[in-house]
Amino acid sequence: MDKPTVGIFDFACCEGCQLQIVNMEEELLDLVSVINPVQWREGSSDKAERVDIAIVEGSITRAEDEEHAHDIRSRAGIVIAIGACATFGGVNKLKNNFDLAEVKQYVYGDSARMHHLNTQPTKGINEVIHVDYNIQGCPMNEKEFSYAVRCLAKGVEPVIPNHPVCVECKMRGNVCRYEYNEICLGPLTRAGCNAPCPTGGFWCFGCRGWVDNPNTDAARDIMDYYGLTVEQLKGKMRLFNSKQEHTDE
Ligand code: SF4
Ligand code: SF4
Ligand code: SF4
Fold first, then answer.
1. How far is the CA of 182 from the centre of ligand 2 (A)?
2. pLDDT, tens digit, for every residue of 60-89?
3. pTM over 0.90
4. Which of 1, 28, 118, 182 fits a disulfide with 177 by CB distance 3.0 to 4.6 angstroms?
5. How high is the pLDDT of residue 1?
6. At what angle do helices 230-241 and 216-225 cross, to 10 degrees?
7. Alpha-helix residue ranges (DSSP H) falling in 41-99
8. Measured in angstroms, how far is the CA atom of residue 61 from the centroid of ligand 2?
9. Cβ–ligand 2 contact at 169 (below 6 Å)
10. What are the chain's domains?
């Protein structure tokens, strides 16, 4: 079987997820042995007409980004979104809480009126084109990425976790952050990271986005039980999960 051709593309982001790929070091050589990278701005100037797998990082924030995303979709067999910026907008969606003109003024000052600064409300890639697989996290988890790409290279369906971070947190034997009077987003957030934040003494801030059907009733019960409010919970959601489905429930 021929190795699938792969292109890596980016939109508005810090490119930290692509750095995760570079940082795979020796494992990257193993991965390259099962795929054929044909387009990757960070690694080469080559361009390809079509790719079997398009890997897309970053958020859509301009009209021309939407056109570019549609072009990638039309040239790709499979599209994988990597990282919070691409999979659901992540921190870039913080902008959507504010008036766009004020945001531009704040960032660009007197230059805000220049016509090429055509920023628009942030969208995740899946709000613009069909995405086949999401590799979550900020940054994405490189092992999960490698696993998913290897599966697809062999024609196998990768299994993407759809249970909350609390499951992995409990398996690591952590004392719950709510017992320290902190608000943790683990009950709503998609697992797969192995709960490094609660294990390291922080709350989960939801960088992997919500599970498919988050139990918002249970989240409300937790807030009641610990004498906290739903508004406080929503405040914690703003960083990564502004303007997401379920966030305002
Ligand atoms: S998900 Fe995080 S690490 Fe990845 S590109 Fe966005 S901000 Fe950077
Ligand atoms: S610390 Fe967070 S992730 Fe861990 S069990 Fe408590 S709520 Fe869940
Ligand atoms: S514990 Fe939460 S914030 Fe930390 S990596 Fe996992 S999903 Fe992201």
1. 10
2. 999 999 999 999 999 999 999 999 999 999
3. yes
4. 182
5. 64
6. 130
7. 63-75, 83-87
8. 33
9. yes
10. 5-153 (3.40.50.700), 165-241 (no CATH)
